[in-house]
Amino acid sequence: MLDRLAPTDRDLVVFPEAFARDFGEPGSDLSAYAEDLAGPFATEVERVAAARGSTVVAGMFERSTDPERPYNTLVVRGGTQASYRKVHLYDSFGHRESDRLLAGPIAPVVVDVCGWRVGLMTCYDLRFPELTRRLVDAGAELVVVPAAWVAGPRKAHHWRTLVTARAIENTVYVAAVGQPAPRYTGHSLVVDPLGEIVVETGPGDAAEPVVLTAEVDRTTLAAARRTNPSLANRRL
């Protein structure tokens, strides 16, 4: 799937949360699907990234110190190597992600991709603005948010609103990549630092994945930070 969907001639390719293996039925055991960061999935991500000449981000379940609760991890391979373990577990809207997954350390992960500083978050992290601000304080100019945003009433509205808010309040680009309908919300989108939607898909269909392409540019970033100098003006 990685090899089939990863486009060519792109500096950064972002796949959704839990791309290696879906969450399965609510409450199901995920430990059997956990791998090490040097395991088959991360190795395949690295191979595809090398073949495309890109940096690739994709979600997996990673073995942790608790054999029954893996980490929900983003692996970054290609032009740079890193990993991010999801900090905020989805104990909300009737779900209990912490029953089967372990939260990662509270530390911002920012990587360099072709001269851009890229911050990493996962899904439910989007609802916690302090994490995005810590990424920006660590230098992030683009924040990527792989997600499996569960579908339901108001959920698409929350998703699009929060992605846009994180971009505006931090004057950064946000690239939010969601698993598709019917189980999830879809609506992958890229928002610029003034809150304009650069590109967006609809709910999508798991049977027909969609590839979105967007370009970020420093002129837009600099103009946004001149127009809305909220980072410079903050007092807390």
From TrEMBL:
Q: Which top-rank group of organisms is this from? A: Bacteria
Source species of the chain:
Nocardioides antri
Q: Does the keyword field hold Transcription? A: no
**Residue span(s) of domain CN hydrolase:** 1-218
Q: Which GO-annotated molecular functions does the record name? A: hydrolase activity
The record lists the membrane-crossing segments as none
Q: Which SUPFAM superfamilies match?
A: Carbon-nitrogen hydrolase
Spell out the protein name for this chain. Answer: Carbon-nitrogen hydrolase family protein
